[in-house]
Amino acid sequence: MSTSTLEKPPSSAPAKQKVILVEGNEAAALGVALARPDMVAVYPITPQSSLVEHVAKLIADGKMDADIVDAEGEHSVLSVLQGGALAGARTYTATCGPGLAFMFEPYFRTSGMRLPIVMSIVTRDGITPQSVWGGHQDAMTVREVGWVQVYCETVQEVLDTTIMAFKIAEHHDVMLPVNVCLDGNYLSYGTSRVELPDQAEVDAFMGDKNVNWHVALDPLRPMAVDPLTGGSSGKGPSTFVRYRKGQCKGMQNSLRVIEDVHEEWAVRFGRRYAPLVEDYRMEDAEFAIMTLGSMSGAGKDAIDEARDAGKRVGLIKLKTFSPFPVEALIKSLKNIQALGVVDRSVGFRWNCGPMYQETLGALYRLGQATGKMLPAQSFIGGLAGADITTAHFHRVIDATEALLGGATMSTEPVWLNEKD
Predict the structure, then answer these.
(1) How many CB atoms lie within 10 A of CB 46?
(2) Which residues contact 408 (CB under 8 A, 6 or more apart)?
């Protein structure tokens, strides 16, 4: 079934939904339950712990029909789910920080085997200097491993995107694992009013379960999984290239599928999210700031205040980070004259934020098309759980506006919380 086609015609009004009050981690767990996975594997780590506790309780209370594996560590968590996924199960887990680092080997293999596992990353900053608080460093560190990565701004978006992630991952043109990234502390423990979709409506949205249609293990149909390829002789090199090329194709296909799935969700449930890039007050903007995740709310408030003061500034928010939505971002950038990019993590190699580093590639493409290079500045804030307030965003707005007047674009990032 095409992701842009509804299984049944929607009613004239969005589906009826129950209003509840939950934290972000519980919202993620409820989204998982509504997606009806066959197997989950869990291991707690701050600030993700309550998420898998909620999942375990839903299973124990009979509200979620899934096998649960309480593994001895994160490496085993993902290894167990690989077996389940290869056997045709819909699978889920969650982790963050050192847990994500511990599972790196199976994490890398999951995308190579094209297994549509969904995993929440309750994002957390680096382990040294010691920190258990929110940041995007963990998810950014693994951004090149071949998982689709989407970031959420609100608790409601966490719930809805968790459900959508399964449909994206399992699409025949994608068949790749998906990370749903929610900011540690700010979203994981932030309590909010959300609308809980009806199970029957979610079932209709998801359609018939058809997971791992291409490789489900069967004792009556034995096969080798993940055979040794590569080398300098035989068909090894061409086989390895074919696998890598297929992964890249699946990633690029996911951009279209993410858009289609979000549109179908909006039609059925009445909540619309920009699937790749969101433009906020960008219609006549001369310059813009760029955000990711929960910081976007404070950024939008600062934009409103700056607009009231006469500044023609807008905000660009990324929802999909991997694959990087270059063409969608170029459309947002084409009419502005300067850009400030706010990261909640550090790109050590380039001495800037990772999102800023990725955005430079889009700016190069834009420059090739227009003949001009848009000045852009890297800002880094919110590390180790620090707030990024409207006051910080006004600093970003003022410094980005200065680029319009000919201010020199610094090769050094601006550290927003350095003196807080």
Answers:
(1) 17
(2) none
Whole-number average pLDDT of the chain: 94
CB 229 within 8 A of CB 239: yes
In DSSP notation, 59-106 reads HHTTSS--EEEE-SSHHHHHHHHHHHHHTT--EEEEE-HHHHHHTHHH
The whole-number pLDDT of residue 165 equals 98
377 and 321 in a common domain: yes
Asked whether the beta carbons of 78 and 49 are under 8 A apart, the reply is: no
pTM: predicted TM-score of the whole model, two decimal places: 0.94
Among the residues of 171-308, which ranges form H helices? 199-206, 236-269, 296-308
Return the SS3 of 128. Answer: coil
Domain that holds residue 225: 17-269
Answer yes or no: do 296 and 225 share one domain. no
In which region does residue 36 sit, left (phi positive, over 0), alpha (psi from -120 to 50) or beta (all else)? left
Residues 309 and 365 in one domain: yes
Q: Among candidates 245, 75, 67, 62, which has minimal Cα distance to 146? A: 245
What's the pLDDT tens digit per position in 283-308? Answer: 999 999 999 999 999 999 999 999 99
Number of structural domains the chain divides into = 2
Give the CATH number, domain containing residue 306.
3.40.50.920
pLDDT above 90: residue 77 = yes
Q: Who has greater pLDDT, 315 or 218?
A: 315
The reply to whether 126 and 256 lie within a common domain is: yes
